[in-house]
Specification:
This protein has about 110 residues and is mainly alpha-helical. The protein has 3 helices and 2 strands. Bound molecules: zinc ion (ZN).
């Protein structure tokens, strides 16, 4: 399947991806509503992962590559959901460097995290 050849597909992907990165960056780093961010993060990361897989698919990449890419993108999505925390006290977005040991306290204000 090749809806977009790589010459057309890459600029479309690049523009959408940059817009998504800027929009999500502004939302997650500037917004102080931890509860809202906690609700938005999982669906946002899942849609982003699906979009990434979609771009790989429409760019004409061999289907066999998708059998490798889909589990990797799913794993990265799960690890990101586990490692990104939001502080109820100050509203900060905290991204732990170790997804297997999420932060227990806010690095900005020291409050205990959920
Ligand atoms: Zn905090």
């Amino acid at each position: 399947m090749n809806f977009l050849d790589t010459e057309q597909g890459f600029p479309v992907f690049f523009i959408v991806w940059i817009a998504l990165a800027i929009g999500s960056g502004l939302f997650f780093w500037l917004n102080r509503n931890a509860e809202l961010k906690r609700k938005v993060l999982p669906p946002f990361l899942m849609v982003s992962g699906a979009l990434f897989i979609g771009f790989i698919w429409v760019s004409g990449t061999p289907t066999n590559f998708l059998y490798i890419a889909i589990p990797i993108v799913a794993l990265i999505t799960v690890l990101n959901i586990r490692s990104i925390k939001f502080c109820d006290a100050c509203g900060s977005t905290l991204h732990s460097q170790n997804p297997f040991s999420p932060a227990k306290f806010c690095s900005k204000c020291g409050a205990e995290l959920q």
